[in-house]
Every structure is written in C-alpha cells, then in structure tokens.
Amino acid sequence: MGKKIVVALFDTKPYDREYFEAANTRYGYDLRFLAPRLNAETVRLAERALAVCIFVHDVVDRPVVEELHHSGVRIVALRCAGYNNVDLIAAKGRLRIVRVPAYSPASVAEHTVALILSLNRKTHRAYYRVRDANFALQGLMGFELHGKTAGIVGTGRIGRIVARILCGFGMSVLAYDPAPDPEAARAIGFDYVPLPELYRRSDIISLHCPLTPETRHMIRAETIARMKDGVMIINTGRGKLIKTVDLIRGLKSRKIGAAGLDVYEEEEAYFFEDFSAGGIEDDVLARLTTFPNVLVTAHQAFFTHEALRAIAETTMENLWRFFESDQLSYEICAPPPD
Fold first, then answer.
1. Which end of the chain is more exposed for a tag (fewer CB within 10 A), N or C?
2. Does domain 6-103+304-325 correspond to CATH entry 3.40.50.720?
3. Is residue 22's pLDDT more than 80?
4. Sign of dihedral through CA atoms 288, 224, 222, 209?
5. Mean pLDDT in the chain?
6. Over the stretch 125-167, which tens digit does the pLDDT of each residue have?
7. Which part of the chain has CATH 3.40.50.720?
8. What pTM, to 2 d.p., does this model score?
9. Distance, C-alpha 41 to centroid of its chain
10. What positions carry a catalytic annotation?
11. May I ask the CATH class of domain 105-296?
C-alpha cells in the first residue's frame, strides 16, 4: 500500500520524525524529512514527491503552488489547523489541501490557562527569585480568578475548553464568535455578547480565533482603549491577531496589566529555532521580553505527546484517504478564482 509514494515533509525537527515514522508503520510511504521551510527558494526539494507536508511557517503562495503543481505534487497536507499561509485561490484546481483541524485542543487550552495563572500569580518571577535565595513577596501579589470576568474570542474546540476551565474557577465567562454555538454556551455556562461588550467587561481576554482579514490586528490601539484598565490579554491563536506595537504602548501606559503570548506576529523569523548564542535583531520582540508582566512562549501550546501523535496520525490518514480512496476528511476547499 503506497510504498512508492514519496512524501516531502518540510520544516521538520527530530520530534516530527519520531511521531511520523511511528504513524507511517501502517502505510509504508517514503517519508523525506527536510529541515528547511517550504518557500520559493526551497520548493525544488519537493522534486519527485507526490505529497508535501508543511507546518505553520511554510509558505505556499502562488509561485510555490505553481512549482509544486508543475513538479507533480498532488496534495499539500498541513500538520496544523491554521491555513493562512496557503494561497487557496492559487491552489484551486492544482493541489488538494488538507489540514489537522483538531489535533489536541486540550493541549492549547491548558497552555492558555497556564499563561493566565503564571502571569496572575507571578510564578515565573518567583521561580527565579527563589533560585537566587530571594524569598521576599513584594511585587508578587496576584488576584483571585473567582468572581472575575473572562472574555473568550472564538468558541471552537479550544475556546470551549478554555471556557469550561475558567468557569470551573468560578469566573464569569463571556464569548464572541461570528458563528455562535448556543448549545455549548448553555452546557458550559458562558454567555455570548458582542465583541465591543466583551472588550469592555472582561478582566482577561483570550484569543482563539483564526487569522482572517477581519481578525488581523483585532487587538490594536482602538480596541485596547475600550478595555478595562489593567486587562490581561492572552494569545495562543495567531500572532497577527495583535498589533504588537500597540500592545507595547498599552503595557507602557499600564492600560494592559499583563500579556501572555504563545504567538507573535513576526514569529516566523525566530520561533522553533535557537538564537541564544547570537541574540535577536527584532527590536519589537526584544522589547516585549523586557516586561516583567509579559510571558512569551515559542508557539509551544500544541507541544504535547498527545497532540504530536494526533497530528501525525491524522496527517497520514489524510494522505491515505487521498491516494487510496479520494475521500478526504479534512480538505480545505479553495474559493473559486475571481
């Protein structure tokens, strides 16, 4: 079954190889693990492959689509949920595009709550203090989540789990989604409200929506001004949901009390790589990391054993369905060309 099918996996790390090789034991495809990210300069590495597997920082724009199609690639499998890095219009009629829509929503939801708790109780700062034999409590004051209001933007699988956890803390949970799920709201115990109301009433705002033209820079100076003084902002979605320079201004003015970011709008230049020896040249990212009330993690919310296993297994199943039955479970349908 499929033993001669070559799959080129771009932007891979040792842990990708481990989980994909385990998942591939059922299929026997020829997996080619490539360290470079897919773009116009590296697309030639997909030569002789019938399938390409990509991650969040690979670029499948029109030139890449055309080159992949020309070289005989038939399907692009994203090992992630988001697909804003793919030109779906260019892919229409040339490539099939599939993704992993729900690899382990609990992983991302739990990391979201970890950021909230760490920022609130300042455990990241306390950890380093104690290592230096400093047991003073000054500057480590937090607040009870019980009785506070959380705003969840996006009530897909991840957003709903975050809402359930925060309801368990005794928080009042508000939510906004252009496609609301009233049944989930009743079952979990949150309320849908318009987005401006969510901004105005929330003590903590957590982003769990996809990156679209409508959501790009949804957190910016104008919307920050509507929020409570001292609001905590959490983003485990996509970096470009937040205009970072405006976030920094909000932090400097103390309009924003804390920020937890697992994503950053220019993260593709740094995230998943080691720059500890040479430092970083991105002044905005460097400024973010100087704030004691900001926690930046390197897009690791998904990074659990369960998630990596589910990503590999779903991706391999997507490929099998395409090559063996042409019945895809998680195809992204491209809109028709203009």
1. C
2. yes
3. yes
4. positive
5. 94
6. 999 999 999 999 999 999 999 999 999 999 999 999 999 999 9
7. 6-103+304-325, 105-296
8. 0.90
9. 25
10. 238, 267, 299
11. alpha beta
